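Hi V.,

Quick status before I head out on leave. The structure for the redesign project is tokenized and pasted below; the design run finished overnight.
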């Protein structure tokens, strides 16, 4: 897999609060660009499906790793593109958190491998600002 996104922000709220907002699936529309609605089948845990509506289509991601309060990985697959988005939270001082997003993509099939660099650019443009947007939502909600 090729790293497509690697971003980190410090959010002036404790990790447990950041985790609560990060995993508030219906509320993700406030900070995930292009997402019109989002829900989860069951609890936030490995094996659960997160469903979302974007660009006129319903899609889903599978939670492949979940360490409550610390990290979660969502895997999405569409055609010849597979993407793992890992969100991590760690304490950064008394009441702040360092929040990271690492996205890795894999392209299979001739056409997707050929278009991989362009798809990567599109993914960075669409999702590269997620953590900065999450920071704005969290810090603006309580200011």
């Amino acid at each position: 897999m090729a790293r497509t996104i690697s971003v980190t922000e410090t959010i002036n709220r404790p990790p447990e609060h950041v985790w609560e907002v990060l995993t508030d699936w219906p509320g993700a529309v406030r900070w995930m660009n292009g997402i019109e609605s989002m829900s989860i089948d069951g609890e936030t845990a490995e094996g659960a499906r997160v469903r979302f509506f974007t660009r006129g289509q319903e899609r889903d991601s599978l939670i492949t790793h979940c360490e409550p309060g610390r990290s979660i990985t969502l895997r999405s697959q569409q055609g010849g593109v597979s993407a793992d988005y890992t969100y991590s939270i760690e304490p950064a001082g008394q009441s702040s958190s360092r929040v990271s997003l690492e996205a890795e993509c894999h392209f299979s099939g001739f056409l997707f491998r050929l278009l991989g660099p362009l798809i990567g650019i599109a993914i960075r443009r669409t999702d590269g600002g997620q953590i900065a947007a999450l920071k704005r939502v969290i810090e603006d909600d309580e200011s």
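Above is the designed sequence. DSSP finds three helices and seven strands in the chain.

G. will cover questions while I'm gone.

Best,
W.
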